Each structure stands twice: as C-alpha cells, then as structure tokens.
Predict the structure.
Amino acid sequence: MDLPPCFALSNSNVKNNPSQKMFFKDMSNSLFGKFAQNSSNSKTEIVWSQHRLEEIASKFNILEIYNLSDTSVLVEYDTILSKPNLKSNVYIGAEINAHARIIIHDYIRLLEAKGISVFAVDTDCIFYSVPKDVQDPLKFTDSIGDFKSVIPSDCEILSYHSLGCRNYSILYKDLGNKLHTITKVKGLSLKSSHMSQLIDHQTYESYIEKHFQSEYQGLVLPQIRHITLKPSFNVTPTLRTFNFKNDLFLKRYVKKNDSDYKTYPYGFIPN
C-alpha cells in the first residue's frame, strides 16, 4: 500500500486495546460472516411500498411476512433461482477456513516436535502444556496474527478440568499469590441472573466427580438468554435450559501409528 513510515506497526508500538479489539472482532464476524454466506439462501428485506412487495411476489416465493408498522413489512423470500456466486460467498469463505486449518496444524507440529503436549485445538487457538525445561516456540505479542495468552505466562496453574473443547475450568495463582479462575462452557451463560449458583472451578470439579466419572450423564441447568425476536428485532430475556453433559463423542482422535485408524473420544487414553 506504500504507506508512510509513521503507519508502520511493530511489537514495540502495538498496545493491547480491549475495546478496539472487540469492535474489530464484531466487525470481522459481521462482514466476513456475511461475505461467506451462501447467496442461494433465503433473503429478508424490509418493504416500504406496495410496488416492491408485488415485485418480490412476482419473482420469488415468499416464505414469511411480518407487519412492522402501518407503512412497512418484513418479507422473507426464497431465492432458489439465484445461483451461488463463484467469485465470493461460501467458496472463498471455505478457502479461508481451509487455509486456517493448515496454519494451525503447522503450529501443532511445531509444538509436538518440541515435546509439548497439545490438549485441544479450535479455529484460532491451541491449548497445550509446556514443560518447565522447554522454551515455548510460539510468538506472543499484541500484534494481529500473533498468539495471545489466555492466562499469564508467569502464573502457577493449580488445577485444570475439561469435558471437551471450549468446555473447561482453570484455577491459577499469580505472582502475588492471588487466585484466579477461568471457566468456559460453550452454550452456557455463566453470568445468567437465573443461575442457582456460580459455576467456577469448585462447582465444575464437583460436577465431574459426582456426575461425569464414567457413564454418559447430564445436568439440566436453567439460564436467562437474551433472544432477538425476528419480526421486530427487539431483544428480550428468555428462560432457557442447558444440558451440561459429558458428551465426548463429537470430538474424536486417532492414536498414532494405528493403521486401523480406530477413533477414541476426547480425554480417553488407550492402553
């Protein structure tokens, strides 16, 4: 782009900005998510005139109509006659995801070559354990494209429990001997006002010890989720339930040097 030197970025002049980071993340999810959307899906449009409504009805199959006001309606119509755009949409979106998998697997091979155990992998993150006598080969900075640490690198991890990817609880101690906990459960709002108790490392560990030792079980937990109503786009709190379970069969792995390619559930260590 031939930018002047004042716009050059380096590890020294890049700083952590949580608000700007969240804004960029929301914009990326919105723009790239819309960019990768299949163009043959149904479309939703706010119609303000009788002429436009008749135009849509003459060309497409109308699926739903919602009355928004005295002068506007929300129309969802099927664009089955539209062909996917070969120059964008789902094709380029799939290419981006495929390229990301190659990058993340290169990092996994780099870690394993150093004798580092990898526990879980997501689209843009790796969870692994580094022995004390091994130097972490990954680069951690605030710059875009480099890794960011979820927990401080100089902390002491006291406990770690997991029921799968994006379903874990970590208890660690910082340099000031202050305890911190990070608990993440995909699909469960840990800050819901209707939760009977706060789910932290203690409750997470108790769930595993009491309910998730060997058999497939689940706990039904109530939670308040904010749902967007489709016709009006108003956000309203709704009481929902979440099945907190030890379903470890969706994420499976293949044991090394196994020519039969037998798969094992996440967390299972074969003899």
